[in-house]
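We treat protein structure as text, and this decision shapes the records that our systems exchange. The remainder of this section carries one protein's record, kept here as part of the documentation:
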Amino acid sequence: SSNKYGSSSWELIVTVDHQYEEEQKEFILRVSGDLHIGGVMLKLVEQINLSRDWSDYALWWEQKKCWLLKTHWTLDKCGVQADAKLLFTTQHKMLRLCLPNMKTVRLRVSFSSVVFKAVSDICKTLNIRRPEELSLLKQSEDTLKKKKKKDKNNKEPVIEDILNLHNSPVISGSPASPGLYSKTMTPIYDPVNGTPVSSTITWFSDSPLTAPNCSILAFSHPNCSPETLAEMYQPRTLADKAKLNAGWLDSSRSLMEQSVQEDDQLLLRFKYYTFFDLNPKYDAVRINQLYEQARWAILLEEIDCTEEEMLIFAALQYRLSKLSLSSEAQDFANECEVDEVEAALSNLEVTLEGGKMDNSLEDITDIPKLADNLRLFRPKKLTLKAFKQYWFVFKDTSVSYFKNKEAGHGEPIEKLNLKGCEVVPDVNVAGRKFGIKLLIPVADGMNEAYLRCDNENQYACWMAACVLAAKGKTMADSSYQPEVHKILSFLKMKNRTTSPQAVSDPESTDMKPERFVSPRYAKKFKSKQLAARILEAHQNVAQMPLVEAKLRFIQAWQSLPEFGLTYYIVRFKGSKKDDLLGVSYNRLIRIDAATGDPITTWRFSSMKQWNVNWEIRQVAIEFDQNVSIAFTCLSADCKVVHEYIGGYIFLSTRSKDQNETLDEDLFHKLTGGQE
């Protein structure tokens, strides 16, 4: 009876997504524009007339790709008219996540919260602290092609390897979820007397993570076969590497808005390479997943390393594979004694510039300096690589060199200011080569200088000074000594002390060494030869406990020149050709696409503002000293690159004294691309 409603009423068609019944049902509701969304849902449920819990259901507007979650808004205010197609569906749906350790878990995730919030809930379920460092990645078609030639519809077959966590209490605010996280924060030891707490497993009591599930996440598992490895996607060029990073989801929109469907597969990965406050007491899962992400990056050559480094990574993996086969590693309580953890922590400054540094404490009068004879090579066109000795002095953030020590009081031949430069190690311990390659920014690009040191200690002191100076810090900074220590411990692992025949390991006969190196290195050696080289490197880590071996692996990964660089193909404003943009945790690098050489570096610390011109999809950034750049992104949406930059700025605002609550609004403000 239309007269009852007056002429202002109209018909609205709503499809109901019954989760368990195949048929979708259409309902026609008689509504008027001043009816609010809550009223529409009430009318609908009355009309469906089924008694069930509808609390997780909400209205999804198909054409506009948006949720109607503000239940007090009227249809008029939302702009919903008779032509709108609405779907009444659950907000939480099953999602398959491939974790950094390549295992897949299935769990219920909010498809209506923004991704930032959804990831935070996922990490709670998986017991990973600091969820802001992770995000969800859609695998690009190219990387899938190699893996799935056989499978036409690219839905991966549901294999038995999937860990089902579908009873997981990920629904925010449901009574089951708050307890889990606070319990997770119970240390594995009694804080008073340092003995292991026996009931470690009980801290997962109200989480789907029962003991076996937890160990799938917290322990590393045997390496896959070389054949499996060969079938996986390996980026060959920087452009290939750029493809890996195209699919990051937009953290400020929901899964549903980004066309993710129920039971789709996404990758959960560490996205930002600043790992804040890694603590073995709480972070068994986080450290293991980080180790796994590093390990796969090296095996699939997503990051380059030298042969010497590859052997260290292989030796650490071999050590871990032996530990995980032995029974005690599977026993949570013995997993690490307290003193070992403390030692590993003091040993490893793994937090990598997490929070803001307090530089106010630097004593300006007492900035140490280094002075020594080093060899230098400055490449000019068509010269051979000839190193010549000079007297070098390192003070503040610059290096000067003189003909000899006596001339050191006069004017230097040249003074190199290292602020903002790129520092690349050029080391081969076996060949006694300890080189530092410096790329120093000048008006039209980068100037190269190569320094050569005589031994490990000299190299560690000078290298650490260069690394700090590049960030604008002097040797008076508190991070100088730990940096020297870190470089030395990495060199020590590279040092091969024993003669090959002295190394024997009864268990190594069936080592299958190819599992521990990338396919390219596996092809270089005969299997026996490779096993011998790995065992030789293993000497240095043979006694290392489980957690420390993982932390060392992560730290060695952090020492690689390419660590933490994410590549995008871009076109700079005014340029005729495409370049690569490397986004790192503290800087942006413009890279020549043809040669892979850095052209210019810009530090985040000198960034004043950044935003996106959405009409032409161009990212514009202003730096100090009136430097400004603009580029469009060709290998991904510009929002992806923009969010990466804003995300790093956001992470640099974290401090130790904050508890783990995050300023989510600040994140969206810094990554949103609005003026």
Summary: The chain has a mean pLDDT of 82. The chain is about 30% helix and 25% strand. The first helix runs from residue 2 to 5. The CA atoms of residues 299 and 517 lie 6 Å apart.
